[in-house]
Design brief:
The complex is a heterodimer of chains A (110) and B (460).
Chain A (H helix, E strand, L loop, with lengths): L7 E2 L10 E5 L2 E5 L5 H7 L6 E2 L6 E2 L12 E4 L2 E5 L10 E6 L12
Chain B lengths: L2 E8 L3 H12 L4 E5 L17 H7 L1 H4 L13 E5 L1 E6 L4 E6 L2 E12 L3 E3 L12 E3 H11 L1 E2 L4 E6 L1 H12 L6 E4 L3 H8 L2 H4 L3 H16 L4 E2 L3 E6 L6 E6 L2 E6 L2 E6 L1 E3 L2 H5 L4 E4 L4 E4 L12 E3 L9 H18 L6 H20 L1 H7 L4 H4 L6 E3 L4 E2 H9 L5 H8 L12 H12 L20 H8 L1
Parallel strand pairs in B: 1-2, 1-6, 2-3, 6-20, 8-16, 10-11, 10-16, 11-12
Antiparallel strand pairs in B: 4-5, 5-6, 7-17, 13-14, 14-15, 18-19, 21-22
The chains are: A mainly beta (110), B alpha/beta (460).
């Protein structure tokens, strides 16, 4: 059943399995194989992907095609990844981007 | 040592697939680079995996794109999915990232088929989570079979808005309303172009059918809506607007907005090619010859990235650019031969283009979204308001490129994709001069973010 503010999957006689599990902000999220990080998070009811770098306001996916950069998240320690362009993998660790990325302390993208 | 090939095609939508097909048929080696995980562009997104049920929901025009994927079976085409191009030089050298590593290739000719973006539609509240483009809603349906949370509102204008409404109805999801922003005067203006559009009557028939389907679905349809404002902070809660002489407020859990599409010119701008202002579609487009050729002989542009004409027109443009490139590289001997081969394409193209003036006039973007109220965030990345931009103009700022020094619009990660046109419109209006005189941002590579680690691995 659709919840408030949650995207829902097209009803199917045999629904697709939620076969991939990844982490978002410390919680487990189940996704379909082939989902992007953005579509999986929206389907799981997460709408705020980051807070903006100037005012700290909530932001979420806007264009879903890699152009607007509103869906930026941290994936496996690398910041500013486009959630709409990256497919989910089991065990991925995803976090919200809080403001602008810091120049020091990020692993993996020196 | 960089890989050397005959043809690189950037973008695997209809124009790119057609261009790759024709160049490969003439014996050239082709690398087709596409950023998305599967070919088809946005229009035929996920066409390879959509089953009959999803194809029924998305409609016959979408399903028709399925056969285009057969092009990828041509052995001379090396198709690389998930390849994000971040630089292209005038000599045909391409830098791209694939699977987390940067690579380069060198092409004797490059055909750029990077398609369209949705036109920015700034109004107060359009940055709140839950507000997304109608295209984004459709992408979620095509790729992930996702339906937005109810109540859903669709606001703006243009064919895509109505198509998405119809697709949701077919999927069993009834949007709470369509809030159409087409001003009344657009209907009168478009009427004069109707006879010309009758040459392309398939577009008109499809349009009427869509509107009839929406009517049968009994969607509340507000017209000539203005003063839009999305409410909510953590998530969109309602849309306020004025229509029919009354102020209205409709609660919503998702708000899909649309105001037409414009060419994605990031690459042609980064190459500093000549662009001209299209006053009918209110957008910039690269200045091209009849074959999609640019002022750089190694580079052509085809499809909606050249000029908005739709998927079918893009196929013909892709083939024309390919024929010219094949002739340039000597794979077709005489120019007379490509002229002969192009005849059918040009004839078909003329029919598709016949519908444009009518559509451009009917769905001309309302002034309110080109020159929005002061409080509206225009540059979403750097959070620069329309009022701030007017302030820069008052201080003597001449155009979009200069605004960067005043307050950073266009300097965030989207590199101006969703504010460039708005900033130009606002400054042109504030200075009282034609838009073509204020120009655009100077776009610089990398046109997509790439890590220093990737770049340094390239040189090492």
């Amino acid at each position: 059943m659709p919840k408030d503010s949650t995207f829902w999957h097209l009803p199917r006689p045999e629904p697709h399995a939620l076969a991939v599990t990844f982490g978002f902000e410390g919680a487990a999220v189940a996704a379909r194989t082939g989902d992007t990080v953005a579509s999986a998070l929206l389907a799981a009811g997460h709408n705020t992907f980051r807070t903006s770098s100037v005012s700290g306001s909530a932001r979420g996916p806007f264009c879903m095609m890699g152009a607007c950069f509103e869906c930026l998240v941290e994936i496996d320690g690398i910041s500013n990844r486009q959630a709409c362009m990256i497919q989910v993998r089991a065990g991925m660790i995803v976090r919200r981007m809080v403001g602008a990325r810091s120049l020091v302390g990020d692993a993996g993208d020196v | 040592m960089s890989e050397i090939i005959d043809i690189a095609v950037i973008g695997a939508g209809p124009a790119g697939l057609a261009a790759a097909s024709v160049t490969a048929q003439h014996g050239l080696t082709v690398v087709l680079l596409d950023e998305q995980p599967a070919a088809g562009g946005q229009i035929y997104r996920a066409i390879g995996s959509a089953d009959a049920h999803l194809q029924d929901i998305l409609g016959r025009d979408y399903a028709a794109g399925r056969t285009l994927l057969n092009i990828l079976d041509q052995p001379a085409i090396d198709y690389r999915a998930g390849a994000t191009v971040w630089n292209l030089t005038a000599q045909g050298n391409i830098s791209y990232s694939l699977g987390g590593s940067a690579r380069t290739l060198s092409a004797r000719h490059v055909i750029v088929c990077t398609g369209a973006l949705e036109r920015p539609m700034p109004f107060p509240g359009w940055t709140v989570p839950g507000v997304m483009t109608a295209g984004a809603g459709q992408i979620l349906l095509k790729s992930s079979e996702l339906i937005p949370p109810a109540p859903t509102l669709l606001a703006g204008n243009g064919p895509l808005l109505f198509l998405v409404a119809a697709q949701y109805l077919r999927a069993g999801h009834r949007p709470a309303a369509i809030v159409e922003t087409t001003p009344w005067r657009n209907y009168g203006a478009a009427l004069g172009a109707l006879p010309g559009a009758l040459r392309a009557n398939s577009y008109l028939r499809k349009g009427w059918a869509l509107l009839a389907e929406i009517k049968r679905g009994r969607l509340p349809h507000y017209r000539a809506a203005k003063n839009l404002r999305a409410l909510g902070t953590a998530h969109v809660e309602a849309l306020e607007f004025r229509a029919g002489g009354r102020q209205r407020r409709i609660p919503c859990a998702s708000l899909l907005i649309h105001s037409g599409i414009v060419p994605n010119i990031q690459i042609s701008r980064a190459l500093d090619l000549d662009h001209s202002w299209d006053p009918a579609q209110r957008c910039w487009r690269p200045r091209l010859g009849a074959w999609g050729e640019t002022s750089l002989e190694t580079i052509s542009i085809a499809g909606d990235g050249a000029s908005i004409g739709g998927a079918e027109a893009a196929l013909h443009c892709g083939r024309l650019a390919a024929l010219h490139a094949a002739w340039r590289l000597g794979a077709i001997e005489s120019h007379a031969e490509i002229t002969r081969l192009a005849k059918g394409e040009r004839k078909a193209l003329a029919v598709h283009h016949a519908a444009r003036p009518f559509l451009d006039l009917l769905y001309a973007p309302p002034r309110a979204f080109l020159d929005p109220p002061d409080e509206t965030i225009v540059c979403r990345c750097e959070e620069v308001s329309a009022g701030a931009i007017r302030g820069y103009a008052e201080l003597g700022c001449l155009g979009p490129n200069q605004t960067k020094a005043f307050g950073r619009p266009g300097m965030g990660p989207c590199q101006g994709r969703y504010c460039g046109l708005s900033v130009a419109e606002i400054i042109a209006a504030a200075r009282g001069i034609p838009l073509e005189n204020v120009g655009y941002y100077r776009v610089r590579p990398p046109i997509k973010p790439v890590t220093l680690g990737e770049v340094s691995a390239l040189s090492g």
